[in-house]
């Protein structure tokens, strides 16, 4: 049997708060037939869209299954979607549990940050390594961990949630109900909020603008400086917990070069070692989620 004949193909679906991305992914990491559509707000229409995308793509290859990269996580007992505030129409519902009952193909479902680290571990920036962490730094702050070649999800499927570990006691209020969560300081949304709270110009409308203007905007400079210090603390804590060989960054903030120039700050936060892990952008960018989702079948 030839190598081409041995390949398997799965559909990867990355369901975000604003868009759905889907593609056919081979068992060697080849991506084809990408589809992008806005995420429907109505759960009924969302279900129809996911079924239609699957029907369209399954006509192109012999598909072994459909992997779904989702915000939050599914409760293993109730099947309820938890911790997905950016998808309010399906958060705290059994949408995905019901979807599985009538879907045209077998489904496997995993958290979006876990899918990112799976995709990068198998085919991307972390390929060939045994210990890797993936961080999605965008609207929120998601995290996925592979240790000794195994995905770490914990006893209830909750782990890891570094975005909701506390970095400042009595700090900023988080949508989860706690205060001082990493997400309230290091997500893209949080950086822009902190900038305006510190008296920054109302003309600055995006997080990218905060980074872009920091050389001439004193408020932006101060906010980004604090952001890098807090980022270094979080990376140091992650190293203490998992001792990864690499930390892969995804999400919109991963496009900012400054995150890859913080070795000195990070080194000060690492206990017991003079070596900092590699910190690299996700090789597949926004595609990492759907690639990792499809790879749940390989």
Summarize the structure in words.
- The structure is a single chain.
- The protein has 10 helices and 12 strands.
- The protein is of the alpha/beta class and 298 residues long.
- The protein has 2 domains: 3-117 and 287-297, ATPase, nucleotide binding domain (Nucleotidyltransferase, domain 5, 2-Layer Sandwich); 128-282, 2-Layer Sandwich (Nucleotidyltransferase, domain 5), CATH 3.30.420.40.
- The strands form 3 sheets. It has a 5-stranded mixed β-sheet with strand order 3-2-1-4-7.
- Helix 4 (112-123) packs across helix 10.
- The model has no long low-confidence stretch (mean pLDDT 93).
Roughly how much helix do the residues carry, as a percent range?
Answer: 25-40%
- At the fourth level of CATH, the homologous superfamily of the largest domain is ATPase, nucleotide binding domain
Structural category is alpha/beta
How do the helices and strands follow one another from N- to C-terminus?
HEEEHEEEHEHEEEHHHHEHEH
Strand order of the largest sheet: 3-2-1-4-7
CATH topology of the largest domain, anyone? Nucleotidyltransferase, domain 5
Spans of at least 5 consecutive residues whose pLDDT stays below 50 are none
CATH architecture of the largest domain: 2-Layer Sandwich
Q: Largest sheet, if any?
A: 5 strands, mixed
Percentage of residues in strands: 15-25%
Q: What general form does the structure show?
A: globular
Q: Determine and state the CATH class of the largest domain.
A: Alpha Beta
Computed CA radius of gyration, to the nearest angstrom: 19 Å
Overall strand count = 12
Mean pLDDT: 93
- Distinct helical segment count: 10
What is the number of independent domains?
A: 2
CA distance, first residue to last residue: 18 Å
């Amino acid at each position: 049997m030839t190598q081409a004949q041995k390949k398997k193909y799965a559909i990867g679906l990355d369901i975000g708060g604003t868009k759905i991305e889907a593609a056919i992914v081979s068992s060697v990491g080849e991506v084809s037939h990408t589809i992008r559509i806005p995420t429907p707000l109505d759960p009924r229409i969302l279900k129809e869209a996911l079924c239609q995308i699957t029907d369209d793509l399954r006509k192109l290859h012999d598909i072994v299954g459909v992997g779904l990269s989702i915000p939050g996580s599914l409760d293993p007992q109730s099947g309820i979607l938890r911790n997905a505030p950016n998808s309010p129409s399906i958060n705290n519902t059994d949408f995905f549990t019901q979807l599985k009952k009538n879907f045209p193909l077998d489904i496997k479902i995993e958290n979006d940050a876990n899918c990112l680290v799976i995709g990068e571990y198998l085919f991307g920036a972390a390929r060939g390594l045994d210990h890797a962490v993936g961080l999605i730094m965008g609207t929120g702050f998601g995290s996925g961990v592979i240790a000794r070649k195994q995905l770490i999800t914990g006893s209830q499927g909750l782990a890891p949630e570094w975005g909701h570990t506390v970095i400042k006691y009595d700090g900023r209020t988080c949508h989860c109900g706690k205060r001082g969560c990493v997400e309230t300081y290091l997500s893209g949304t949080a950086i822009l909020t902190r900038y305006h709270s510190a008296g920054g110009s109302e003309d600055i409308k995006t997080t990218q603008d905060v980074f872009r203007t920091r050389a001439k905007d004193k408020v932006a400079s101060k906010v980004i400086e604090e952001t890098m210090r807090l980022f270094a603390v979080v990376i140091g804590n992650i190293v203490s917990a998992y001792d990864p060989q690499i930390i892969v960054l995804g999400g919109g903030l991963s496009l900012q070069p400054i995150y890859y120039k913080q070795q000195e700050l990070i080194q000060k936060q690492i206990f017991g070692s003079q070596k900092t892990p590699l910190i690299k952008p996700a090789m597949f960018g926004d595609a990492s989620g759907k690639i990792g989702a499809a790879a749940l079948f390989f």
